[in-house]
Please model this.
Amino acid sequence: MSSSVERFDEKARRTFSRHGQTVVHRGELLRHTVYTRVLHWTVAISFILSLLSGFAIYSSWLYRWLTPLFGGGPLTRFLHPWFGLVFTIAFFFQFLNWFAPMHWTTADKRWMREVKAYITNREAVAPKDTGFFNGGQKLYYWTIAVCAVIFLITGLLLWFDDVIARWLVAVSYVLHDLAALAMLAGFIIHLYEGTAAQPGTFQSMTNGTVTNKWAWTHHPAWYAEVTGRDPREDYERERQRLTERDRVVEERERAEDRPQASVGTRDDRVR
Model:
């Protein structure tokens, strides 16, 4: 199965690369291809539309605020399952796209044990064996996979609720809502981590590239794999460079302040 998935994924990457390109500048690395980025944004947009239309149906308070976005209540009810279907299909292809690097490893267990120190910035860089995806990203990936299956099964049962036993419809409502809440929680964390928490991450899903600094900071094992360089050595070299730059700037500012101070003293003597 793995080889079949890889062949399909490689063919899809080549097809999409004919219609778009990724420009990698000096000091950058290719992170995500055009195909991956198209899948990611299709999944993200369809999920947001599913979430908003679902909340409109779920809550009478949100109904009046959200249904106008979709043309009214009946149209919202009509569009919601189609948004969900697009999300499920798009994620299926993203699931295949990322299936190989999402396998759980001992490195991911170690990342999870050290996650508190990493996200609170007590550790400047991620554990050295953190590969293309870290343990948190893999956990989110498999959470989406489970939720997508629940969405699909319960969504179909709710879509055709007139031919399904009432108790099964009731159970489907509960499971559907729980999966939506789990996805929402993960989405909020994902959005925060991809923007404010890790600057430069969002660029990887727009331009497809990341800086070398981003790579050795957050995914050192992947950085070492694609560059053949030691991420810790490059990190220390960059840290020393920044320290030296700050020292030079500080000395220059002090040098600029000294003449002003002496001129002020001479002026005082003249007066």
